[in-house]
Amino acid sequence: MNTFSFYNMLKSLIFFIIKFCAAQVLILHLNPAVSVLNSLTTKTEMTDVREQLLSIEQKYKLFKQQQFIFITALERSREHARDKTEPVSTVTQVQRYMNHHCSNSTDRRIFLLFLEIISDLEGILKHLESSLSSKNTSSEGLNTCREILNLNSNISQLRAHYPHNEINRLSCDEARNFYGGIVSVIPLSLDLLNNYSRGGAQRVTPTATETSQQTVAKNAEMVEGLDKDTSNKLSRYKKGAGGWHAGKPAWKPPGNTRR
User: Fold this and answer.
1) For residue 87, with 0-12 CB atoms within 10 Å meaning exposed, 13-18 middle and 19 or more buried, which class applies?
2) What crossing angle do the helices spanning 185-197 and 3-65 adopt, rounded to 10°?
3) Local confidence band at 36 (pLDDT 50, 70, 90 cut-offs)
4) For the whole model, what pTM was predicted?
5) Which of 55, 106, 168, 225 has the most CB atoms lying inside 10 A of its own CB?
6) What is the pLDDT of residues 219-235, one digit of tens each?
7) How far is residue 98's CA from residue 109's CA, in Å, rounded to a whole number?
8) Distance in angstroms (rounded) separating the CA atoms of residues 32 and 235
């Protein structure tokens, strides 16, 4: 190998090293910029999601004010469909009632509002899931929300407890046997989506992840407690059982009653 060839090889090697170092420096400078750009994009997306959730919450407030109308509509539809002994266990069931067993425009309107809110929540969920899939990450909260919003999922054992009051607006029989699950779908889904949009991607609200056994046990204890409390209150006012007249003699009319 002559001297000229050696110098050419050395020159090429030096140029390669310089280019490689320059590329590494460029990457080091670009990575923070890309990260910032991704962060800004994520923040913008989450801001949009939160705005959509606020809009849904306003719509849900309107629905919540009409919960009694919703329950009455379900009662009528279940009677028409001869489902009086079965709980409302899926969103598809509500859809079927609206399409085939709806008796008036008021019932149809409240069913439409309920299904519209469910559809809006599904849209936000799909948007968040597609964003996560592009990052090859997952969220337990979104997975739970997907199960709740699945049209064919059995949600009869779901219960939205405090601070929600949907269950409290039902009678014990309605909450335990028929409508406790269907009125809990929207508030629990809103909780999960709001939690995720605020940065709690891996946190799941305890209410939404209760097992069926835990929910049934909690509801049974609540009903049992109410029944026991009511019976205790009533027992104090039963004749001869104490309470306000305990220790008092029987009432006698004034004057001489002997003949």
Assistant:
1) buried
2) 150
3) very low
4) 0.63
5) 106
6) 444 434 434 443 444 34
7) 9
8) 73
